[in-house]
Every structure is written in structure tokens, then in C-alpha cells.
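Can you give me the bound-state structure? Components:
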Amino acid sequence: MYSEKVMDHFQNPRNVGEIENASGVGTVGNAKCGDIMRIFLDIDEDGIIRDVKFKTFGCGAAVATSSMATELVKGKSIQEALQVTNKAVMEALDGLPPVKVHCSLLAEEAIHAALWDYAEKNGITIEGLEKPKSDISEHEEKIEY
Amino acid sequence: MIYLDNAATTKTAPEVVEAMLPFFSENYGNASSIYTLGSVSKKAVNQARRTLADYLGAKPEEIYFTAGGSEADNWALKAAAEAYANKGKHIITTNIEHHAVLHTCEYLEKQGYEVTYVGVDENGIVKLQELEEAIRPDTILISVMYANNEIGTLQPIREIGQLAHERGILFHTDAVQAFGQLPINVDELHIDMLSASAHKVNGPKGVGCLYIRSGLKLRSFIHGGAQERSRRAGTENVPGIVGFGKAIERAVEIMPEKIRKETELRDYLIEQIYEKIPYCRLNGDRTRRLPGNVNFSIQFIEGESLLIMLDMKGICGSSGSACTSGSLDPSHVLLAIGLPHEIAHGSLRLTLSEENTREEMDTVVAAIGEIVERLRAMSQLYEDFVKKQNKC
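Here's the bound-state model for the whole set.
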């Protein structure tokens, strides 16, 4: 059901952990759909993401998308990190089953939430960053019986 | 490999396969044909029918072969609803039924029937008083499962059957999980209709049956030829039916020993998980449950992750996690017994067979322990919990 890349990132997740006194922390998710992600960013004075860590409660896809998202933003500028969309995360993982697409949305949103927290802490505005939703749940197609 | 998903399906027993084989090769006749080759098939089908009937304390002509448990559930509910519509359009069931019953009820609601979904207590046992109070003059059918497929809880079938019969209401039970696992007598339990499946009890997939008490005026479900006393058309699945018969013959033979062995293993596994895994709870009743069913909620982790990691260690289990069902909602059964969503997501169901061993249970518990530790180290729910504990 999962690609080899998803399985690899699930079995050997990159950047698991926490950053003490992180520049920005974002937690998004929804216990109802079973996934909660927290992302920690360490951003230097030039606006470069020096380090990133995550913790996730969720399924294989939730762990893998968190792991891939952290890989994609590490060492990048804030603006570059903003370009890491859920599609980019999915592509980097060689795709996700349709029912797991929401996990990649959650990963994108977790990065945005951490950046939002960073901006608030520093009293700055990040161009192109909207206040993230804390709760992501895709509307499922209701099947009629 | 350690297989602990016998509630999903079981290994077809070698003697069952052996009994089926001639009906693929030399005995390929159509049971409806007049010549000898056909009558060999007919005889075999009838012998299987008798085996099932004997097990249930029923008459052979009350057993109707179907393509499985879901078909039997669909047939029982739709046909009963249609047949008794002039008496009323109210049906009572529970909120922990299998989807084959629940989705059929939803369908019937769209056809103008009213359905009451009776709740269960925290152990998953149907609330009898609530069920009794739900009965109305226009109630035509009560459908309650014999044993729950996720948490293994055994329902008070005799009491419900008695209640239904005192009020002149039909009683159907989805016995897919209990059929061939426990002794069942349709007369003692006041059962009018009962659904069963072969592959849950070491028989082949794609065959099941519906028991219909004689005298019930239920219509045909599949229209066509005169098979199954004209109530379920279609050339008989002779190898499947023969396999079903053999599986039940075998099940009845080994039943007392199988129950004893599985119960002992089940209790050992429950005890070991409680002992070795912190922050978990057993779902379902401690003793009123299927001999082979163990279902735990393990806090701060998600079921699918646990299953994938168990699979990598060669262990097959299942979960009520949303992520394993193709939808985003966790198991309706775990929500019905009152579990919050995040705990329902972390459930693990292990269902045993008589072939499992105590050594396997030790291996499994050790594997769960390692995996849970790893997943919790990754889980911010656990991190938050630990921080909160440290503050206190």
C-alpha cells in the first residue's frame, strides 16, 4: 500500500526529536482523524532554517510525511520553506494512497504553523504566510447505502 | 510468521482442502443434473447441510447456503423487512454490529423503515433494558450479533431471543464470529435467523449460510433457478459448500479442546500485555468474550504504525484505527464503548487459533513492547503526557 520511500521514512524517520528554545514550534492535527504533528524550527539571524525536528502521533504516512517535510525545509530560507507544499512532500515520497493525502496537508500545515510561531515571537510578518489552521480534516466522500 | 488475525480469516484446514479437491476435479457435476455425476454433488451438498443443521440443532431444510456472511446478513434483514412490512416498519439493532448489518439498516432507513440502534455498556454488552424499552407495536425485527468481531464480547443472545419471541418479533443474529467456535442451539436461544461464514472457522472463503426457521415467509434473495428451495438461485458452490461442511465437522470435533486452549492462551496474553506494556487497557469484557479474542488500546500511539512494525517482525494483527479501514474515523465499536478518539486510534486486536503457542505469545509481547517504546518516543502526545506527569 505504501511506496518504498514512505516505508523507509516510516522505519527510519529523519529528524525525530525536539529543539529546546526553538525559534518556532507548530502543532497541528486532530486526534479525531488520528494524526497530530509538532515541528520545531531553529532559524538563524539570516532567516535560514539551521535545524528542524518533529514529533508525530499518527499512522505510517503521518510519520513519513513529517520526516520528509523536515528534510525538505532543512537548510532552506523561510521563503524557500514556504514553497514546500503538500504536493512536494507527496512527490518526494513517490506518492501516497488517496486516503492518506491529508497527512501531507498536515505536514505542510505544521511547517507553516512553526513559521507563524517564529514570526509572532519576533514581531515580524512573513510574506505569503497565512495564519495556519490548527485543525486539518479533509472531508471524506460520504458513501450512501 | 506468527498469525494472530483469525477474526479476519483463518487458514483453510488441510482436511477441508482435501475434502474439497475432488469437487473441482472428478466430481464437477452440477447438483441439479439428473445423471450420476450430478447426484454425487447433490449428495455432498446435502451432507454438508446436515452437518451444519446438526451443529445448530436445526433441520437441514432450514440451512440456506450463501456466498458468505455479508450476503446472509443482507438477505435476513431485507427479506424480513419486506415480508413483515404490513405489520410494521421498525427494526432494532445495536451500534456495534458489523457493517454488513449496519449499512443494510441504513439502506432500509432510506426505504422508509425506522431503525433503533441500542447502545452497549463500557464492556460492549448490549443494554438489555434499553433494548426492551425500544420495542414498539410496529417492531418487526431485532438483530443482535452473537459475538463482536472487534472486541469479542458475547451478547446475551438467549435473553434477547426470549424477549423477541414473547413479543412476537423476529430475531436475527449475525453469528459469523461465533459459528463453529462455540456451541449454538437455535431453539434454546430462540433464534429465527442466523448468519454464518465458512472462512472464519478454517473453511474456504466465498461461502456462508443463513439459517431460516421453518415457517418464516421470507422471499428469495437471488431470483433464478430452484436451488436452495427456490430461495437462493444460482448453481451451488459445491466445493465451497463441501469445505464448509468439513470445516464444521472438524470444528465440532475439536471444539472443547480448542476453547480450552485458546482461553488459556488469551488469558496469558492479556496478563502479559498488562504486565509489560504501561498505559494500556483491555477492550471488551474480561471473561464474556470469544476464547481467541484480545483487544487492547495502547495510549499515545496509533494502530496502523504499530501494525506495520509488527508486520516487519512477522506478526499479523489488526486494529480499529481509522488508518486501517480506509476512512478517517476509528472503529464505531470502540467509540460505542466510550473510548475517546485518540485512544480508539491506538487499538490492537490479536485473535488466536488453537495452533498458537505460549512461546509465540512471549515473542509478540516483547515485540509490542519494543515497538510501543519506539513509537512513544516519536509521539508528542506521549511527550506532553510525560511533561504533565513531571509537573505534578
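A couple of observations. Chain B touches chain A through 33 residues (CB under 8 Å). Chain B has a mean pLDDT of 95.
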